[in-house]
Design a protein that fits this description.
9 strands; Arginase, Chain A; 7-stranded parallel beta sheet; 322 residues; 9 helices; two-stranded antiparallel sheet; 12% strand; alpha/beta
């Protein structure tokens, strides 16, 4: 596997959200980055989104404002969003990390949600499905990627695996939500209680990794959010920089053909450290940033164990490995 590199272009700063938590400082916090020429991904939007929705977004961006209560658009948003799709598809072909805005994993076929406009990772996954590949989506963001999950909920060609805080925005993602129809057993939700620390995160990964390996994907997509870090403002998880490094390392030790695209992570001091630790983990480079590991209160661990047991019970008839 080639080293994972960052794909970045200043066009993503044209998505102007003002003082919104998802703002251009998230990327400018990384300092000067090498600029990659990125594809215009407009032609790929209909792999996931309806024509009516695409037209609605384009029109709303001309004047700016809100697509929904949480999702802001500006005159530069449409260009940023279609290039975010293009950059994610590029990353999926080269095994790189697309540093894109706006994010995507909450976006649905016909509606925006949770700061997300077009579902970058779902579009890239569908692009590879159409080439006959099986895709593992490991959703690293601390929120459930509701749009991505719903789009592939009936598919047995995509394994959607999410480790997220529950309850939290956007709702859903409980342990017994495992897919429907042909896709039953192909959605793996690992809902973590608020206050979960590093040891719960690593256990949640290790406990369900056998399913992902049994699925045997051709390509692994990582919608990578870092809002589960202990100092992020939008969630109550307690993961440290060390965990993002370890997860990256474990992913690349177990799978080939991994790519990532940016989702959440709103503490602009910690976000660059989370990002670089994750990429260093993927590349098996030395961990640059360390924190003292966190652990969880015993009540939190008991709650997590109960949820894990429910998930394993719900999935056990579909997978030999658990």
């Amino acid at each position: 596997m080639n080293n994972m590199e960052l794909i970045y272009n200043p066009i993503f700063l044209q998505h102007d959200t003002g003082m919104h938590p998802e703002n251009k400082k998230r990327l400018s916090s990384l300092g000067e980055l090498p600029v990659t020429e990125v594809k215009n991904g407009e032609e790929f939007l209909t792999l996931v989104h309806s024509n009516d929705y695409i037209k609605r977004v384009k029109k709303a961006c001309k004047s700016g404002g809100h697509l929904d209560a949480d999702t802001v658009v500006s005159p530069g948003t449409y260009e940023a969003a279609i290039h975010a799709v293009g950059a994610t598809i590029m990353a999926s072909e080269t095994g790189d990390f697309a540093l894109t805005r706006p994010p995507g994993h909450h976006a649905h076929i016909d509606k925006s949600s949770g700061f997300c406009i077009f579902n970058n990772v779902a579009i890239a996954a569908q692009y590879h499905l159409n080439k006959g590949k099986k895709v593992l989506i490991f959703d690293l963001d601390g929120h459930l990627g509701c749009g991505t999950e719903k789009f592939f909920y009936n598919s047995d060609r995509v394994l959607y695996w999410s480790i997220h805080q529950f309850p939290a925005f956007p709702g859903g993602g409980n342990a017994d939500e495992i897919g429907e129809g042909k896709g039953e057993g192909f959605t793996v939700n690992v809902p973590l209680p608020a206050g979960s620390g590093d040891e719960i995160f690593m256990d949640a990964f290790q406990s369900f990794l056998p399913i992902a390996k049994e699925f045997d994907p051709d390509i692994v997509a990582v919608p990578a959010g870092f809002d589960s870090h202990q100092y992020d403002l939008l969630l109550d998880l307690r993961f440290t920089l060390n965990s993002f490094y370890e997860i990256g390392k474990k992913l690349s030790s177990n799978f080939k053909n991994i790519f990532a695209t940016l989702e959440g992570g709103y503490n602009i001091k910690m976000f660059p450290r989370c990002l670089y630790n994750f990429v260093d983990g993927i590349n098996h480079d030395k961990m640059k940033f360390k924190e003292r590991k966190t652990d969880s209160r015993i009540q939190t661990y008991y709650e997590y164990e109960g949820r894990k047991a429910l998930a394993r019970q719900s999935l056990s008839k579909f997978w030999k490995s658990i």
